[in-house]
Design brief:
Oligomer: single chain
Largest sheet: 3 strands, antiparallel
Radius of gyration: 15 Å
Distance between the termini: 10 Å
Number of helices: 5
Strand order of the largest sheet: 3-5-4
Strand content: 5-15%
Length: 108
């Protein structure tokens, strides 16, 4: 429906970083559950060997942490995005439709 992007107070963040934005959406959709780092590395860097995929994940997590701060919890084994740190437009749209706020949903 729209483009993939992240904005805070009208400022675009991670512009052109499609893989990082995709990973962020994946984390948001997991509703605050812990995800194994190995799973994320294999999912987002399937073409890389395990060592290279883990290095790429480390770099991606550093970049996401720069944007999300303490909202992104990272341990040596797992990654978790705290609920409510990022709101997806799709979730807001669905909530507006469910609430009968069709005009607001249409604008979104």
């Amino acid at each position: 429906m729209g483009s993939l992007g992240l904005a805070k107070e009208g400022t675009s963040l991670l512009a052109g970083r499609r893989k990082l934005l995709s990973m962020l959406v994946y984390l948001v959709r997991r509703d605050g559950r812990n995800l194994p780092r190995g799973e994320l590395a294999a999912l987002f860097w399937p073409e890389s060997n395990e060592s290279k995929a883990r290095q790429s994940l480390r770099q991606a997590l550093v970049e996401l942490r720069d944007v999300l701060g303490e909202g992104l919890e990272v341990t040596d084994r797992e990654v978790r995005l705290r609920p409510g740190v990022v709101e997806l437009d799709a979730d807001s749209f669905e909530r507006e439709v469910d609430d009968g706020a069709y005009a607001a949903a249409d604008v979104r």
